Amino acid sequence: MTTPREELLPSTRRALLHRIALAQTEGRAPSLVAAVARDGELVWSGGRSMVDGDAPDENVQYRIGSITKTFTAVLVMRLRDEGVLDLGDSLEKYLPGTGVGEATIAELLSHTAGLAAETPGEWWERTPGSTRPELADVLGEQPFKHPAGRRFHYSNPGYTLLGSLVEALRGAPWEEVLRREVLEPLGLDRTGAQPRDPHAGGWAVHPWADVMAPEPVEDLGLMAPAGQLWSTTADLVRFAAFLVNGDDRVLGAESVREMRTPSAPAQAGDDRVYGLGVELIRWSRGNLVGHGGSLPGFVAGLWASEVDGVAAAVFANCTSGPPVSAVAVDLVRIVTEAEPRIPEPWRPLPEVDQKTLELAGPWYWGTQVVVLRLTADGGVELGPLAGAGRQARFRPNRDGTWTGLNGYYAGESLTAVRRSDGTVSHLDLGSFVFTRKPYDEAAPVPGGVDPQGWRGF
Questions:
Q1: Burial class (CB in 10 A: 0-12, 13-18, 19+), 302
Q2: What is the distance of C-alpha 215 from the center of its chain?
Q3: Residue 312 contacts by C-beta under 8 Å, 6 or more apart in sequence?
Q4: How many whole angstroms separate alpha carbon 271 and alpha carbon 273?
Q5: Which residues is 294 bridged to in the sheet?
Q6: What residues contact 145, with CB distance under 8 A and at least 6 apart?
Q7: Would you say 275 and 261 are in contact if contact means Cβ atoms under 8 Å apart?
Q8: pTM greater than 0.85
Q9: Do residues 290 and 279 touch, judged by C-beta distance below 8 A?
Q10: What pLDDT band is residue 457 in, cutting at 50, 70 and 90?
Q11: Could you give the CA distance from residue 292 to residue 290 in angstroms, rounded to a whole number?
Q12: H helix or E strand, kind and range, residue 13
């Protein structure tokens, strides 16, 4: 019997090896390591190195730079899910006196707070964190570069603020909170703020000559929540599965789905958008979710297909060179094209609410036909019968209504309005009336229905 978790075919494995070998050679990286997981299970790993017989494997640590931001975002979302904070709250409410307190937590998560991209003064990634002991040293005298909420502008200081927020609300260092609340529950034993053997050393490769020099390894201090972490490809592809599916020990599926929802429109000519601590790439089979990262001596990329359940992580120990994020995307593409996911067998729902089942089928918004379908998780989907159009998933509420989870109807309330005898009159979705036939005269259609009914001309 064929199962979705069988080993990759030899031809697929060779294609993956060829891709990373090409990246290491053309990118002139001292070493490059990669791993691929399918449905959360490691199915392939490979490495290339300038030292014969000493290629890294999936358990060697590299610095992952800004992929750290995704971990910090998870900690903030946990606080939100516990009711400790609201994403619409201003930073000032919890971390007063920063000078940027009008920025909201959601804006900081999504890089839409308008803050500067970098810290003032010396290049923070290549100098000790001790040179920036206070938040004022991270933010400077003019921390805002754009009006808050108006545009996406990537900000490393913004994630320093989020790390300080976590510390203030948890009463413990960011690193300790991260280990306790995320790394240990997910089994990411080789991820942490400090390197542990075996780990790679960071190098700068000369752009015009095949020579190199070691890069300093600095503790980032307050900037740690923006880029401090070390990890392995094995750990990161496991983390990618969490970003797609969630884990109730850390964040549930709805919360990680919220993280994957775009928060700001893409820049002109860019196929990437940002959610809450994660990037999204539009491609032929839906979105890829992940993040890139770099620090002097290291580059890293992590990407996962929401549809196919395939994730890839690629690291290299050089300041610049191989486009590791693009390589990770290519690894996902190689596997999904060569070995598409084998669907789970169709199975009927274990149980169904008869009142919900009564709502399934076609409905009309004016003259436009849509279909309501039941989902396996107890929710419903509403979308066009065919072609493009507004489509959304809805989760059930205890009062018998549903709340939109995505698209145009995200956050909107769906209600089945019933007559006094219990039969369904219509659906109300954010004031839109959906009826069982076009402009049903038996339903309260806004504007009324012409008494002469439908007619020719």
A1: buried
A2: 30
A3: 34, 35, 36, 37, 237, 302, 303, 304, 328, 329, 331, 332, 335
A4: 7
A5: 299
A6: 114, 115, 116, 117, 153
A7: yes
A8: yes
A9: yes
A10: confident
A11: 7
A12: helix 10-26
Of 39, 44, 40, 42, nearest in space to 308 by CA: 39
153-156: Cβ within 8 A, 24+ apart: 153/111, 153/112, 153/114, 153/115, 153/117, 154/111, 154/117, 155/108, 155/111, 155/113, 155/115, 155/116, 155/117, 156/66, 156/117, 156/118, 156/119, 156/124, 156/223, 156/226, 156/227
For residues 368-390, average pLDDT: 91
Contact 282, 271 (CB under 8 A): yes
SS3 assignment for 87-119: CCCEHHHCCCCCCCCCCEHHHHHCCCCCECCCC
Cβ distance 402 to 392 under 8 Å?
Answer: no
Query: What single string gives the DSSP state of each residue in 268-299?
Result: TT--EEE-SS-EEEEETTEEEEEEEEEETTEE
Distance CA(338)–CA(340), nearest Å, equals: 6
Nearest to 63 by CA among 237, 217, 291, 243: 217
- In sign, the C-alpha dihedral spanning 272, 273, 275, 280 is negative
pLDDT, one tens digit per residue, over 156-173 is 999 999 999 999 999 999
- Tell which residue, 331, 325, 326, has the closest CA to residue 293: 325
Q: What is the pLDDT of residues 92-108, one digit of tens each?
A: 999 999 999 999 999 99
At what angle are helices 156-170 and 68-81 packed, to 10 degrees? Answer: 40
Q: Of all helices (H) and strands (E), which one includes residue 37? A: strand 31-38
Chain centroid to CA 395:
20
3-class DSSP assignment, residue 39: coil
Q: Which run of H or of E encompasses 313?
A: strand 310-316
| Separation between Cα atoms, residue 223 and residue 125, nearest integer Å | 9
What is the torsion angle, in degrees rounded to the nearest 10, for the CA atoms of residue 161, residue 165, residue 171 and residue 175? -50
CA distance 141 to 368: 55
Q: CA–CA distance from 345 to each of 4, 207, 378 (Å)?
A: 11, 53, 19
Query: Contact at 8 Å (CB) between 434 and 360?
Result: no
What is the C-alpha to C-alpha distance for residues 77 and 246, in angstroms, rounded to an integer? 12
Return the closest-CA partner of residue 125 out of 32, 216, 232.
216
> Which phi and psi (to 5°) does residue 285 adopt?
-115, 50
As given in the structure block, the two tokens for residue 149 are 């909420």
Task: Provide the terminal-to-terminal Cα distance of the chain, rounded to the nearest Å.
Answer: 61
Contact 270/223 with Cβ under 8 angstroms? no
